[in-house]
Amino acid sequence: MINMSYQIPFNRPCFTGKELNYIAEAVQRGHISGDGHFTKQCHALLEQSLGIKKALLTTSCTHALEMSALLLDIQPGDEVICPDFTFVSTINAFVLRGARPVFVDVRPDTLNLDETLLEAAITPRTKAILLVHYGGVGCELDTILPIALRYGIPIVEDNAHGMFARYKGKYLGTFGVMATQSFHETKNFQCGEGGALLVNDDRYLERAEIIREKGTNRSRFFRGQVDKYTWVDVGSSYLPSDLLAAFLCAQLEARDNIQAKRQRIWQYYNTHLADWAAEFAVHLPIVPAHCEQAYHVFYVVMPSLQSRQNLIAYLKGQGILSVFHYLPLHLSQMGQEFGGKPGECPVTERLGDCLLRLPFYNDLTEIDQSRVVEAIRGFDGWA
Ligand SMILES: *Cc1c(COP(=O)(O)O)cnc(C)c1O
């Protein structure tokens, strides 16, 4: 095609080819509400591949985080520790139960919670430590887990970025008492909107099913473990339709293929931008040797806010969409209501100004990717 205006989006949903067949099969099976055939398939696939006790599909990662806050019985006034550099949902699910957020700055290399600042953030009111494995690169769990254990504080992993990544050989999402996954359209494995709660501690197994099923013991009833199904606890409706599970099942089954594509894309950026980054003092992602990452994002950390904004505008002019995130939570409107002040999390504050994410989706072709790289290498708006 000639004269086609060239457009490389930041994200595009990608299909394995089996999604619609599985959705049709769910319809034929006559069960399209939650916990049908494909939901069970997804649960089994996640449990077997990760080697965990229980996986429960949810309507989103946000809802899986809300379930975590309910399972940990978070009460008004409880403190919850959270990295300052993360998506709003990580902490909002706990604030919804009345928790007070305690934001901890992140490491400048992996952008994960800075484990050297963790102990000082703990008080007698601390009821949970939330971890985010940014870009699917593991937090320093060998330092963090013993601290949490010493104070008896449960860890919840918001593993939205880190499906199938590992820390020292063990899957992310299997370290905390529970972990949450996202299957949003922007994540490695997608079903539009969806998530999962991974339960690693037996104490939470039964109640997790109840909270997910509107506070009823419906799951036990269907397994024949109780002879009637009734209201036994608080809860909500956190289970997705089997139509979405069918879509997701196709994606999860293709996990090796999807991850291989993402690895190739990530490595292409990393290789072809290395000398450029060194020349202009731009930081590229750092992945410690003991972390097998999930290839969720590729980012550059520019030298200044101005150069980042200039690069976004310059790429846009070439039909390429790049995006930034996350604005420091402690300086958001809500964060300031909890007392957040400028200067408290300097690393996150700098990332909020300088980090830029490049186009990254499973079907990004090498031709398009080379256009992105060439465009970046031609950028001269350093100001
Ligand atoms: C995407 C994301 C979420 C929210 O996921 P949803 O499935 O959209 O609710 C939560 N935490 C992190 C770190 C995320 O990246």
Q: Could you give me the name of the CATH homologous superfamily of the largest domain? A: Type I PLP-dependent aspartate aminotransferase-like (Major domain)
Rg computed from alpha carbons, rounded to a whole number of angstroms: 21 Å
Instruction: Count all strands and give the number.
Output: 12
Element order, helices and strands? HHEHEHEHEHEEEEEHHHHEEHHHEH
Characterise this structure:
With 383 residues, this protein is of the alpha/beta class. It has 14 helices and twelve strands. The strands form three sheets. A seven-stranded mixed β-sheet has the order 1-9-8-5-4-2-3. The model has no long low-confidence stretch (mean pLDDT 96). Pyridoxal-5'-phosphate binds at residues 60-62, 86-87, 89-90, 132, 158, 160-161, 182, 184, 195.
SSE topology:
Layout lengths: L18 H11 L7 H14 L3 E5 L2 H11 L7 E5 L4 H8 L4 E5 L13 H4 L4 E7 L8 H11 L3 E4 L7 E2 L2 E2 L6 E5 L12 E5 L5 H8 L5 H5 L19 H12 L1 H25 L11 E2 L6 E3 L3 H13 L15 H5 L8 H9 E3 L8 H12 L6
Parallel strand pairs: 2-3, 2-4, 4-5, 5-8
Antiparallel strand pairs: 1-9, 6-7, 6-10, 8-9, 11-12
Bound molecules: pyridoxal-5'-phosphate.
Comma- or semicolon-separated keywords:
three-stranded antiparallel beta sheet, about 40% helix, Aspartate Aminotransferase, domain 1, alpha/beta, single chain, Aspartate Aminotransferase, domain 2, about 375 residues, about 15% strand, binds pyridoxal-5'-phosphate
